[in-house]
Amino acid sequence: MAGKTNPYKAALAQFDAAVSHMNLDPSTVAYLRSIRREVTVTFPVEMDDGEIRMFTGYRVQHNSVLGPTKGGVRFHPDVTLDETRALAMWMTWKSALMNLPFGGAKGGVSVAPQSLSTNELRRLSRRYAAEISLVIGPESDIPAPDVGTNPQVMAWIMDTYNQLKGGGHTPAIVTGKPIPLGGSKGRFEATGMGVMFTAREAMKFKGIDPSSATVAIQGFGNVGSMTARFMHELGTKVIAVSDVYGGIHNSDGIDIPKLIDYVKQTGSVVDFPGTEPISNEELLTMKCDVLIPAALEGQITAENAPRIQARIIAEGANGPTTPEADQILHDRGILVVPDILCNAGGVTVSYFEWVQGWQHIFWEREEVVSRLEKAMVSSFNATLEQYKRTGLSMRMAAYTLAIGRVAEAFELLGVFP
Q1: What's the confidence (pLDDT) of residue 4?
Q2: What is the pLDDT of residue 337?
Q3: At residue 2, does pLDDT exceed 50?
Q4: How many CA atoms lie within 13 A of 337 on its CB side?
Q5: Angstrom distance (rounded) from CA 245 to CA 154
Q6: Proportion of the chain in helix, strand, coil states, percent, rounded to 5
């Protein structure tokens, strides 16, 4: 994370800015600002060649007054405790904004998963699951996929938990798992679909016709690629995309279905036929109607925010905009659809999957998509009304709504004992 804003400091700064607009009891503010539980684990994994390597992982539970904590597991070399704290806090506000009965959590291991064989990844996933098994559970803390993890990793975590608990079957212990094991239809594409729904509503508010709109997307992992697919299906012209290897641009629009197939074959968007190379900085500051940062934290900063030319920023990633950049964008009249709203499609369908797991009744994809669209549009409209009523930025409107809901629940519960 060298050279980047500390994500936990950014999360705290956003919280502090929001509560400055609220009339909350100072003791409530102190409670909401605090982390409930954090676990750091260091554990051995045997490599295929017999070498024993040590890895460090985390599980952070920020707040649970609205329900069991919920949050992804990230496998990435840059995973740190502070990043995990920030992501857990953002999950609390995200769940509250979406009116979900969840608190916020996050987990991760500092590892480059692509450097591991399938067997090494399986051993690492299972050992990490075993290390955090005392603090997770279907009614306490429910992991899900994030950067560097996928449904297969969730299957390993679920089975490890089940074996440690006596060999039962507990499908509600994780979400984002394979459909044959109790996963939900629509979960894989849910975050990207949610980004599209909120970007569509933002364009509607700004009077932009999607069929004539231009979009640039930073990041082409699960969130970025699915967002590109759904924006393309909406009729918008995706003119630039990027991944960790580089970016591509075509002012006439990129054929997203063909690009997705190309990436499956080559592993990168680079050198896709009919496009020109573009740098990450050029993508972020190019002229377009909608900019969708869908990579990692701290991408839009005080340095490049003055040069952003998009009319709307829809945050597919968590924490892509620093607090300093936020103020610049707000002052310039650029509408930012904040991460805790924009990318909440994943946790929303995770909630649907959790409910289906408890009931052992599973919905068709059409029902999942319909429920997701209704939830995303409802939360966007509630945030937009708060934005209009208060004159705050969209982020502060979302934060004040979410924090208010958690604060109310905390004050109703009181303090044990």
Answers
A1: 63
A2: 98
A3: no
A4: 36
A5: 27
A6: 50, 20, 35
Question: pLDDT digit string (tens) for 28-43?
Answer: 999 999 999 999 999 9
Token match 């089940």: residue?
162
Query: Domain extents for the chain?
Result: 35-169, 190-337
Amino acid sitting at position 160: T
Between CA 173 and CA 106 the distance in angstroms is: 14
Q: Which two tokens stand for residue 170?
A: 């507990």
Find where tokens 């605090």 sit. Answer: 34
3.40.710.10, 3.40.50.10860, 3.90.1800.10, 3.30.70.100: which CATH number matches 35-169?
A: 3.40.50.10860
Which of the following is catalytic: 9, 70, 94, 106? 106
Which of 91, 38, 65 is CA-nearest to residue 415?
Answer: 65
Dihedrals φ, ψ of 226, to 5°? -70, -40
185 is catalytic: no
Confidence of residue 175 (pLDDT cuts 50, 70, 90): very high
* Equal fold, 35-169 vs 190-337: yes
Strand partners, 44: 54
Domain at 190-337: CATH code: 3.40.50.720
* Residue pair 188/223 in contact by the 8 Å Cβ criterion: no
**Confidence (pTM):** 0.93
Burial of 276 (0-12, 13-18, 19+ CB in 10 A): exposed
